[in-house]
Specification:
The protein contains 1 helix and 17 strands. The protein is mostly beta strands. An 8-stranded mixed β-barrel has the order 2-4-7-6-5-8-9-17. A 4-stranded mixed beta sheet has the order 1-14-11-10, with no helix packed on it.
Length: about 270
């Protein structure tokens, strides 16, 4: 059994400057952002799908909001079975869900996401990446610096017959990536620390199987978001390209990613 500690660092910013400093960041062309990550819970009856195609437009660095991309045509094609699955937008939100809850679930197929927006056609391919179940989650007694953090202990057992990459969703837009280089085929245990969680709150931890490319993509996004204890100024903001391409105008590439993951989850009520 291997145990590794992931520290969730809390950093407070103290603002005490009297002078106003104006920072002028370089602007870039507005890009379509395609967030299309799906978790398929194949072990549940009935099978459950978690995710949607979220379309937005890139915005200047200091903007608090990103505008949705409305009115797009969105569908996924099973390239092996030649089946097409249509999506529809939810109330001009830029969030597109499968029509009639119809979603592909053939684990052996290659799937292609197509997005038609503002005269351009964007495409990307994905295969379903396998995962492993979560063995157990429990509440621990350890804390970090302030002493009032809540520890959650997560256990899972890696599959020894393949090279695995994982994305954990820990709630409240908190994510964690890990790969099995140092625990192939063994049980892996890690702790995650939450700040300001009240007793009685339910925490749901999800594990998703991902490929190496999506693993690297998410690792970069997590680092740039400042989730690991930094902040938005820890590194220079950059455009992170995914696996979607613009087939109409290749130079006008989109941002974002299309992925399909086998997923498992467990929940815990905080004491």
């Amino acid at each position: 059994m291997i145990r590794k500690l992931f520290l969730l660092l809390m950093v407070k910013a103290f603002l005490g400057c009297e002078d106003v400093i104006e920072v002028e960041l370089p602007t870039s062309e507005t890009k379509l952002v395609i967030d299309a990550h799906f978790g398929l819970y194949l072990n549940e009856d009935p099978q459950m799908i978690d995710g949607a195609v979220i379309l937005s437009l890139s915005a200047p660095f200091f903007d608090n909001e990103t505008p949705p991309a409305n009115g797009a045509t969105v569908f996924i094609t099973d390239l092996d079975l030649n089946r097409r699955y249509e999506f529809q937008e939810m109330e001009n939100s830029g969030v597109y869900f499968p029509k009639n809850n119809n979603f592909p679930s053939n684990a052996q197929s290659t799937y292609e996401l197509t997005v038609v927006y503002d005269g351009d056609t964007y495409k990307g391919e994905a295969n379903l990446i396998p995962s492993v179940p979560i063995d157990d989650i429990s509440q621990g007694d350890d804390t970090l610096f302030s002493g009032d953090e809540t520890e959650i202990i997560v256990k899972f057992t890696d599959n020894k017959d393949r090279e695995d990459y994982y994305l954990f969703t820990l709630g409240a837009n908190l994510y964690l990536t890990t790969d099995d280089r140092f625990y192939n085929g063994e049980q892996f245990v890690f702790s995650y620390f939450y700040k300001d969680i009240d007793p009685g709150k339910e925490i749901t931890v999800k594990i998703n199987g991902v490929d190496k490319q999506f693993y690297d993509y998410m690792r970069i996004l997590i680092e740039q978001s400042g989730q690991n204890g930094g902040g938005p100024f820890e590194s220079t903001p950059s455009l992170v390209r995914g696996n979607m391409i613009n087939t109409t105008r290749p130079d006008n590439f989109p941002l974002g990613y299309f992925s399909l993951s086998e997923a498992f989850k467990k929940s815990l009520v905080i004491e």
